[in-house]
Amino acid sequence: MNKPILFVLALLVSTLSFAQKKELRAADKAIKSNNYAEAKAALSQAKSMMSGMDDKQTSQYHLLMAEALYAKGTASDNDINTAIEHLNKVGSDYNSETGMLRQSMENDLLLKANSLYTGSSFNEAANKFEQLYQIKFTDTTYLYYAAVSAVSGQDYEKALDNYLKLDELGYTGKEKVYYAYNVEEKKEEVLDENTRDLYVKAGTHIKPGERMSESKSGEITKNIALIYVQLDKKDEAIAAIKKARVNEPNNSDLILTEANLQYKLGNTEEYKSLIQEAVKLDPNNVDLIYNLGVLSSEAKDVEAAKGYYQKVIDMDPTYVDALTNLSALILEEEKSVIEEMNGLGNSAADNRRYDELKEKRKSIYNEAIPYLNSVLEVEPNNVDVARTLMNIYSAIGDTENQKKMKAKVDELGG
């Protein structure tokens, strides 16, 4: 009496297997006809029978789901993400098919990611680079570009997540770089190997060579710290910076970053110590000294900031930012003078003090004028500086220069 039952069970298994294959074949046919809605409907039917599928059928189901959801790149981000999840579940029975699909998806997504990034759609570009990494886990460069794009799009949480993954993976970004000297442009150019060899053969380039690019590990740990700062997670930021400095103890940018952090935490002695360390490390680095001026200014150490800016100007008289910032610090002193002038009464003593303050205000203006004029020499179209000078000349009664500056402001459309 058991035999008929066994026969019925066998018949049910056979029918189920036939139904699975039917739905999978229907989905495959629909995909080949670009009818992805029909393919999804067939696969939805097949999903209810997955418990009875063997490994090969399960792999085929996931492969077809990936193809149907991806829809040759026309799908939404959510569908593409789900498609990648299915693709990563396909077994070895379909290595050739998954390889072709991965390559097609990689080519398509890379074009879109680059286009979005160059078009300043940074958050969308970050999503595409993340998808690229999910498709090709062996290429951590995609994860790096996802982090960079997220920073540019000010999505700091996503950027931090990606940078932390890169740090955990030990990503360095070091790769072999091919280069040659462009004879016409008179400069070295980095090219892919085949292009470089063709150019050298054509004679447009000479002195071919190759080298390893610099490691990005320091940049990654530094950016982790900076993002922690942006997210107001100062303790995590300090820990990240100290970790970065273990790897790059002589990196002045890292020293300045930690100095700024220590100042924000109220650790003024640590801040001063780091500033001194940075100066000793690279005393002739004009950009470093300028940054020290900025940090000192932010720390309300006005005299130190002036000293750093002046040192920059002595080293490079055309350093516009130093000239501008120094003149701004000088003019900042005017505020307290005006406040005192406005608070004076009409007594003889007050009148004498008023005249003293008036002269002091004039001396402030005269001190700032040379720096502002130097800015105009480098940037003759800087209408803001021209307008400032016009107002200063008017305040000190220098009619001739005031008229010259007014004419310049009018010329610049200010």
- Report the average pLDDT across residues: 87
Coarse structural class:
mainly alpha
> Which H/E pattern describes the elements?
HHHHHHHHEEHEHHHHHHHHHHH
What's the count of strands? Answer: 3
pLDDT below 50 for ≥5 consecutive residues: which ranges?
1-16
Radius of gyration: 33 Å
Lateral strand order in the biggest sheet: 2-1-3
Largest sheet: 3 strands, antiparallel
Helix content: over 70%
Strand content: under 5%
Number of helices: 20
Cα(first) to Cα(last) distance is: 103 Å
Cα shape: elongated
Describe this structure in words.
It is built from 20 helices and 3 strands. It is mainly α and 414 residues long. Among the domains are: 16-90, no CATH class; 176-212, no CATH class. A 3-stranded antiparallel beta sheet has the order 2-1-3, covered by helices on one side. It is elongated, with a radius of gyration of 33 Å. The termini are far apart. The model is unreliable at 1-16 (pLDDT under 50).
In short:
By secondary structure, the chain is mainly alpha-helical. Helix content is 74%, strand content 5%.
What is the fold's blueprint, element by element?
Layout: H1 2-32, H2 36-47, H3 55-70, H4 77-87, H5 95-118, H6 122-135, H7 141-152, H8 156-169, E1 176-182, E2 187-191, H9 193-202, E3 205-212, H10 217-230, H11 234-247, H12 252-264, H13 268-281, H14 286-298, H15 302-315, H16 320-332, H17 334-342, H18 348-378, H19 383-396, H20 399-411
Antiparallel strand pairs: 1-2, 1-3
Helix pairs in contact: 1-2, 1-3, 2-3, 3-4, 4-6, 5-6, 6-7, 7-8, 8-10, 10-11, 11-12, 12-13, 12-14, 14-15, 14-16, 15-16, 16-18, 17-18, 18-19, 19-20
